[in-house]
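Record type: monomer structure entry
Structure origin: computed from sequence
Chain ID: A
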Amino acid sequence: MVLKKWFGSLLLLLVVMFSNAVGAYLGINIGTDVSNMPSASDVVAILKANQITHVRLYDADAHMLKALANSGIEVMVGITNGEVLGIGESPAAAAAWINKNVASYVPSTNITAIAVGNEVLTSIPNAAAVLVPAMNYLHKALVSSNLNFQVKVSTPQSMDVIPKPFPPSTATFSSTWNSTIYQLLQFLKNTNSYYMLNAYPYHGYTTGNGIFPIDYALFRPLPSVKQIVDPNTLSHYNSMFDAMVDATYYAIDTFNISGIPIIVTETGWPWLGGANEPDATVENAETFNNNLIRRVLNDSGPPSQPTIPINTYIYELFNEDKKAGPLSKRNWGVFFTNGTAVYTLGLSTSNRITGNSSVTFCAAKQNADSAKLQEGLNWACGQGGANCTPIQQGHPCYLPNTYQNHASYAYNDYYQKMHSTGGTCDFDGTATTTTVDPSYGSCIFTGSSNSSTSGGIFPPVAFGPISPQGGSSSLSFETSKAQSLLSSAFLALILL
C-alpha cells in the first residue's frame, strides 16, 4: 500500500511537472449577469491592462472568443448547465458544439479547457447520469479535430459533494454520487485532465457556526494555541483554502485513483453584504484575495501534496448585480464595469507580491469620500508641491480617470518628497501608507526606499495636512468610458 501511494504521488508529480517548471498561475472568472456589461473588446482591454493571462467563461460567447483572439490569454470555455443534457445524450451534438465553439476559434483564441456545466451534481442532479457521457463525447470530438492534447475537458464541482471536509484525511465524496464520481475520476485520469473544484472559505466560515476563526478563512496567521491540525495525520493547515483542497485530494484517494491534480476554478470573497452578512466587507475581500495571491504564487500544494501547485481562478471580474439572492451574492467583483478596481490587490513584481516592508508608498484609502479626495488632490498638486503632470490627460497616470487614482499618485509624490522632513500620509484621513506598490503599466509610483528629495525647491507647507485647502487643480474629471477602461491596482496574473 505504501509503494502504491508513493507511485501514485509520482504519477501526479509527473502530470504537473511542466506546470511546476513555469510556476502556478491565477486566473479570473467572467460572469455576465451584469447590468451595463462592457463590450467584449473592452473586457479584453481590462484583462490586458492588468496582465491577466487566464480567464474562465461560463459559456462560449462568440463576441468574447473573437475579442480574445491573438491576446495570448488562456481561455477556459464553459458548457452551460442547460446544454449538458443535450450533449450527454448525443455524440453529434457534442461534435457540433466543439466545431462551433472551439475548433473554429483555435489557434487564434488560446482555448485550453472546457468546463462541462458548473456544480452539476448539486445544482441539476437529474443530469448526473449524462455528465460523464457528455465529457466523453466532447473528448472524442476533440480527438477527431486533433485538439485533445491542447484542450482538456473537466467539470467544476462544489465542496458540497464532500459532506464532511474536516479533518481532510477522512474526507469522502457523498455516497449519493459514488458511481458518477468514480466514472468522472476515471475519465480525468485517462485523458490526463484535472479535477475542477469550486472552493469558498467564505461559505465555509459563515456556515461553520463559529467552529473556525475568521483568520483561518482569510489566510491570516493563527496563534500556536489555535493551530488547525488534522488529528490523524498531524498536518497543520494554515488556511481553510488548503484544507478544502486537501480534503478533495483525500476524497479522490478513497477511490484508489491517483495522478489527478486539482485546479480551483472558483474562489473569492464578497466585498458587500446585507445586514445579516457582516463578514462581506471590502477589508475582508481585499485581505482574502491578496493573501490568496501570495498563497498560490508560492508554487506549493496542500500538506498531502506539497509539490503540486494550486492553480486558481478568482471569482470574479465584475459584480453580477442581476443575480437573485442575498446582497453578498451580487458583490464578488474585483472590478467595476468602468474598469476601475474595487480594491487594491498585489501586483506583479516580487516586491508587490510579498509586500516588501522596506518600500513604502502613500495611497488614497478605498471608499474615501470623493469631496475629501478632491480637496486633498488640490492641496497636494498646489500648496503641497507634488508633481501632478503624470495624472494630466495624455500622460501615463491619467487613466483610470478617477479621484481615487489621481489622489493616490499626488499623495504619494508629496509623501516621498516630504516625509523625511515631517510630511505625513494622512490628508484628512483619506490616505494611508502601504507596502503594496500601486504602480501599473507605465504609471510608476516612487517608493520610499528609492525616492529622492532633490529636484526642486518647494514652497513652505504644512507637513501633515489635516484639512487640505487651496491650490486649484487643473485636472479634468469628466466621465469617459473609453478613458476609464484601464485600471490602477490589480494583480499581474502571470506565469512566474
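Annotation 1: The chain has two domains: 2-352, 357-484.
Annotation 2: The CA atoms of residues 28 and 55 lie 5 Å apart.
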